[in-house]
Every structure is written in structure tokens, then in C-alpha cells.
Amino acid sequence: MGYTNNMASLKAAAEDKTNPGVSKVTSFAVDPRILAVEPGFNARPLNADHVASLSLTLRNGAVFPPLEVRVEEGQIFIVDGHHRHAAALDAISKGSDIKAMDCRHFRGNDIERVAHMITSAGGLPLTPLQLGIQYRKLIGFGWDEKQIADRVGKTTVHVKDMITLAEANSDVHKAVNAGEVSGTTALEIVKEHGSKAGAVISEALQQARAEGKSKVTPALLAKQQSKKSLSDKQILAWLLDQAQRNGPGSPNGAWGFSIRFEVPAPAPGANVDLRAAVAALAAQA
User: Fold this and answer.
1) pLDDT in tens, 223-269
2) Within-domain flag for 122
């Protein structure tokens, strides 16, 4: 490593062709007000609290790493650094004299841009649902699950799971995005219940709110499942609780009892699963 001796500056070292230990990365000073955001590209919806925090640090003198950008049809689009950009605009609106941000020219096609966004360590971590949506984009570009796993440093099982969540129905996505259930919990529900997962989450959420909670958790789901999986003994106990004594029902004075309950009407042509119907009624008691 003797070639690093006697350096006057990093700039001089980078310009010295005999010194391979230091190289120069070109960045550009760009007015943040002319940077464009590509609709639908950013996998991370802007987090207002994170933007506010970055804006404050910027106004207090912090220096951000360069943004990654690309140029197309005369516009400069952000590839990585959406929160930093939003924070700069917020700081400007609050009186900061920010005339430029460091930007680097991103080299790569549309596939590389998506892959870079997934693996970027500079922003907020992607949620399981956000990851799944981006993995599906790469699948659409022709990548297979192993290629994606190798690129992001995960297992193929992880990639398949995230894609499964991304392909769940919109009611599942809505609940995840609203913070009513975590992505990992939603994934397990989707695996078990398929297209009915949204209804399962909705039912569990009603129970959570009845208990003063705002989110579906694995513990709540387990408790619900245990209520629904009643034993024959528990079902019989419920039936006996419903029994009505009708008084002596025979000449010898024996007492008569009756039990009456209603179950949902089956689909045309379908048979009633009486045990399941009674178990559902007993679980609601």
C-alpha cells in the first residue's frame, strides 16, 4: 500500500493515475425544486414523521448522502432518496436557504432501478407487503424467485412468502396498510384461509376492538381459534343450557325438555353440517 504515501489531497490522489487506491465518484449539485418524482415508483410511501425528522436535522446543519437520480426526456427523476428530497423541500418551505443537493447519476435499466430500491440501505425498511409488490415487479420483468433471492440476500422461501402476501385480496392489503394487522400475521392468515383471509381479519379486528385493542395479533387469533374448536363436551354443555323444561310430558309424571336453535340456511342443494353449525353457535355464546 505504499502508493498512498505523500498524498496532498484526495482530489490529487484520485487524479494520480499511478495511485489505484483512491478514485473519484462524480456527483452533481442539483436544486431540489427541479427534481421529479416518478408516480408509482417509490416502494416506500412518504412517512411524514420521518420527513419531519430529516427536515429538522437538515435545518440544524446536517449533510445528507447524495441522492441517486436518472435523466429522461429533460427531467431528473429520483431513484433513491425520496425522503431526503421531501425533507429538503420542507426545510426550504420553513426558510432554509438550500440551493442544491448532491446527486449521483444512477446507471441501470428499469429492472436495476427496482432491485436497487429494494436493497438500498439508505431509506426506511420496506414492509413485507411493500417487498412483495416489488418482487412481483421483478417477476414481471422475467426474473425467477431464485434470482430475486440471490440479489436481495434472502431465501427463495422468503421471496415466495412476500409474493403470496402481495397477491392477497385488496381487503387484506387495506388492513395491512391501515396498521390493523402486521404483514407477517396477515401472511399466515392468507396461507391458512386463502381468499377468505380478509373476512378472518375483519372478524378478528372486531373482537380486538371489543377488547379495547386496535390490532389483530397472533395471540388474539389463537384465542378465537380455541373458541371455535369446541369439544363435543363443550357443545353438549351449551345445548343443555338451551334446554327448556316443559313440565310433565307423560302419564307417569316424567318431565319433558326441548331445545330449539336456528342455523344459517345452506346454499341450494347443500347439506347442513349440523355439528359445525351448533359449534359456531356455541362459540358465539
Assistant:
1) 777 666 667 787 788 788 887 777 666 667 677 778 887 777 776 76
2) no
- Does residue 94 form part of some domain? yes
Q: Give the list of residues 6+ apart from residue 214 with CB closer than 8 angstroms, or none.
A: 179, 180, 208
Per mean pLDDT, which range of 148-157, 163-172, 183-192, 249-258 is the poorest?
249-258
- pLDDT tens for 135-151 read 999 999 999 999 999 99
60 assigned to some structural domain: yes
The residue out of 108, 126, 145 marking a domain boundary is 108
Burial of 166 (0-12, 13-18, 19+ CB in 10 A): buried
Q: What is the DSSP letter of 277?
A: H
Which residues is 102 bridged to in the sheet? 29
Q: Which three cell numbers stand for residue 12?
A: 490529487
Cβ atoms within 10 Å, residue 274 = 9
For residue 73, the enclosing domain spans 25-108
DSSP, res 12: H
